[in-house]
Design a protein that fits this description.
This protein is mostly beta strands. It has one domain. The protein has no helices and nine strands. The radius of gyration is 11 Å and the shape is globular. It starts with a strand and ends with a strand.
Length: about 80
């Protein structure tokens, strides 16, 4: 599993990759019937389920990140 870091923001996260954000927080997603289920660190339950065009905010390590679902993956950007 490859890992992208917050130093490369904005980034496009694809399924099977991890994004390492502030506070050593890890973000990943799994496809689920057209939606992207978003998981933080080692959680078993998705924090959000996004369809393309939807967005969600994650606060961690004193930073806020925008997570936007796209057809190709999740775009992650600092807000």
């Amino acid at each position: 599993m490859s890992t992208q870091s917050a130093t490369t923001l904005p980034l496009l996260l694809i399924e099977g990759e991890l994004a390492r954000l502030a506070g050593d927080t890890q973000l990943r997603y799994e496809e689920n019937g057209g939606a992207k289920d978003i998981f933080v660190n080692d959680e078993w339950s998705a924090r959000a389920s996004l369809f393309p065009g939807m967005d969600w905010e994650l606060e961690c390590g004193g930073c806020t990140y925008g997570v936007i679902a796209e057809e190709a993956g999740l775009r992650v950007e600092k807000r």
